[in-house]
Amino acid sequence: MDLQHIFENNKQWVKSKLELDKNYFKNLSKGQNPDVLYIGCSDSRVTAEELMGMDPGEVFVHRNIANMVPNTDLNSMSVINYAVVHLKVNHIVVCGHYYCGGVKAAMQSVDLGILNPWLRNIRDVYRIHKKELNAIKDEDEKYNRLVELNVQEQCINILKTAEVQTAYRTRNLKIHGWVFDIHSGKLIDLDMNFERMLEGIREIYHLDD
């Protein structure tokens, strides 16, 4: 691939923005005030701002393999801390996608080297929901259901963090679980009841102010 065309694309993008607003980049440089933290998959087919129709400055984005939020991962924990405490976002979105390569890899009994500890988090999701998943006979349906359950468990991991619990109590921070359907291009809200989920884990994971 010749990367020079990227710089040509950039020039055209700059030109198009300035044609609409001559102060576009001047205003953009003043800082950010996003309302949403988006945690998604690194998959090259799933672009955060584009699929949501959001402009630069409107969404704070974190992406990794299979949209994971392990509480021991300093990367994702630092992103959540900065977004919640300093940027004061009002919404956190975990967005998975059907036909996720990371989720599929976790379903296979294959040694994937350095990926093993990361994918083990997804296998833990399978273990938690083993009864439901094993009852699904169609492999594609099982695969897609694990994608949804993985989003659910990552949202629960977010609920376990101190800064999120504080923001939930003091300013009604909201958490959302979504899935992007690559076949249709549609975003699907899994419509999870996080109040009920929070009550379910409060006894163990509740942190005082």
Account of the 3D structure:
The protein is of the alpha/beta class. The chain has one domain (31-198): Beta-carbonic Anhydrase, Chain A (3-Layer(aba) Sandwich). The chain contains 10 helices and 5 strands. A 5-stranded mixed beta sheet has the order 2-1-3-4-5. The longest helix has 21 residues, at 139-159. The chain is globular and about 55 Å long. The N and C termini lie far apart (52 Å). The model has no long low-confidence stretch (mean pLDDT 91).
Supply database-style keywords.
51% helix, 209 residues, 5-stranded mixed sheet, Beta-carbonic Anhydrase, Chain A, 5 strands, single chain, alpha/beta
Rounded mean pLDDT is 91
Give the C-alpha Rg: 19 Å
What is the multimeric organization of the chains shown?
A: single chain
Helical content stands at 40-55%
Strand order of the largest sheet: 2-1-3-4-5
| SS elements, strand count | 5
What is the helix/strand order?
HHEHEHEHHHHHEEH
What is the fourth-level CATH superfamily?
Carbonic anhydrase
Shape: globular
Low-confidence stretches: none
Give the domain tally. Answer: 1
User: Within the CATH hierarchy, at the fold level, what is the topology?
Assistant: Beta-carbonic Anhydrase, Chain A
Give the distance, in angstroms, between the N- and C-terminal Cα atoms: 52 Å
The appropriate CATH architecture is 3-Layer(aba) Sandwich
